[in-house]
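Hey, weird one. I pasted the MEI1 protein sequence into the form twice and got a warning about non-standard characters only the second time. First submission, copied straight from the form history:
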Amino acid sequence: LLFPVSNLCGRCRPRDSDLLQPSLNFLYWSLHQTTPSSQQRAVAVLLSNVSLLELLQKVLECTWLRSPASEPARLSPEDALLCSGWLLVASLLLYQHRYNTEVHQIISLDLREVLNAIIFRKKKPILLLVSIMQFLRTLLQQNFSSSLLVLVGQNTAQGAMQAQPPSLQDAALYPLATQQVFSLVASLQNLLVHIQLQKEILLSQAVVACLESLVEYLHAKNQDVALHVASQPWHRFLLFALLNGGQKSFLQPEVLRLMTLFLRYQSSNIISQKEISQILQEAAEANIAELPEATSRALHLFLWQV
């Protein structure tokens, strides 16, 4: 089925959302709900379809061309198609890297537009934000190096800096700029506080995962910048906001993952021995077998980090 469905997608236009959206969903689940050996073959089939990859690039580019929706919580057919496109491309990036699959057509994207879609959210639907952050997280995990993707829009920035050479920090973090990093961190922090009030669990998980990958990327490129980001006092307020959102327990997946992140980078001004003791006490009193899977996994990583 991958052959006819992927060929059908390649003959569509980005505005054919009624046909494209379920078709892209089928391709996405075909990649994820299969055995590893079949997964490798599925990736090869999709990456060999030039028309499909050209269509996916056009779909992603529609993200910056669409005007903000008047009802951001409502997912229109066009927004649903964008979600499917971002998630499918993120999956193709992941599995192409894993299996080192041959690429027959490169997708070009402007990194500044991807970052601005998160930093300046402009009433984007929640699922669309989650999808774009999943894509960005994959890029960060791969150090912005992929055979499938080329990031454009960087040469213009380099040309503008010829008269004034980039700082050592910017050079180390390339293709990110230091100011972009700080803007992205601030946006993720604010988004996490905002969505905690609305109980948007899916988006809070995506934000924390993106923040984790960003700090890991920074640590590999420039440890000083990574430690500076991880030890920002605003993170302390983040924890208070998460704990005062109605569920006081430290045994929330997002809280545990943030605590683990701060422990990993020794942010003693964010997390103290008192908080560690409280988590250990709550874990000792909880029925571990009854904890949700996400909580159990986050607690395991926290205890391992301790």
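That's the output from the first submission. The warning seems to come from a hidden character in my clipboard, not from the data itself. The longest strand covers residues 107-110.
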